[in-house]
């Protein structure tokens, strides 16, 4: 029994290790825009283990990927993937309350789902977080920054994956 348990835990850690490859492949297939890659992207997204969602960047990137796939789907599949996208954007926000890009994209997804009330309440939370971020800079820093977008600044400041962000903003 002990040997079986050891083998199972090795297999489990291997599955977790495959997460990053699967996630990157899903993003690449969806980004290619080719219809034939969408089905494979879905398989990669469905085989991710929960461990990948524990990091802010990966939760965000997978939220974008789930949205992208969901927006190309219909019926129950579309609803499931859009709901998963919402859950992952919320998770990314929970891990980093000043992750303004995640707020913006969550607003966008809510609007796409026809959830205008949730989009509005998320927008209000976005404004509060944006103001907190803005206030974290000194007056001199604010003057030097001028008209730079604080969302843009925050994304560069923390090394966010902007490729995924830009894909969602194009829609």
What does this structure look like?
This protein is mainly α and 171 residues long.
Shape: globular
The SSE order reads HHHHHHHHH
- Strand count: 0
Low-pLDDT stretches are 4-12, 147-171
Q: Give a quick account of the main beta sheet: strands, pairing sense, barrel closure.
A: none
What's the short version?
The chain is mainly alpha-helical. Helix content is 80%, strand content 0%. It has helices spanning 2-32, 36-46, 56-72, 75-95, 100-112, 116-135, 139-145, 150-157, 162-170.
Describe how the helices and strands are arranged.
Layout: H1 2-32, H2 36-46, H3 56-72, H4 75-95, H5 100-112, H6 116-135, H7 139-145, H8 150-157, H9 162-170
Keywords:
9 helices, disordered C terminus, 171 residues, mainly alpha, 80% helix
């Amino acid at each position: 029994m002990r040997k079986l348990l050891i083998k199972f835990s090795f297999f489990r850690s291997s599955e977790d290790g495959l997460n990053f490859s699967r996630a990157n492949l899903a993003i690449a297939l969806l980004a290619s825009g080719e219809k034939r890659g969408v089905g494979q992207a879905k398989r990669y997204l469905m085989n991710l283990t929960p461990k990948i969602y524990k990091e802010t960047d990966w939760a965000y990137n997978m939220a974008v990927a789930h949205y992208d796939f969901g927006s190309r789907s219909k019926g129950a599949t579309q609803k499931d993937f859009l709901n998963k996208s919402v859950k992952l954007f919320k998770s990314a926000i929970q891990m980093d309350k000043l992750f303004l890009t995640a707020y913006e994209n969550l607003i966008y997804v809510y609007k796409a789902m026809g959830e205008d009330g949730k989009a509005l309440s998320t927008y209000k939370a976005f404004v509060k977080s944006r103001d907190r971020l803005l206030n974290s800079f000194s007056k001199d820093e604010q003057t030097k920054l001028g008209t730079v977008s604080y969302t843009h600044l925050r994304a560069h400041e923390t090394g966010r994956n902007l490729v995924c962000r830009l894909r969602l903003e194009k829609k």
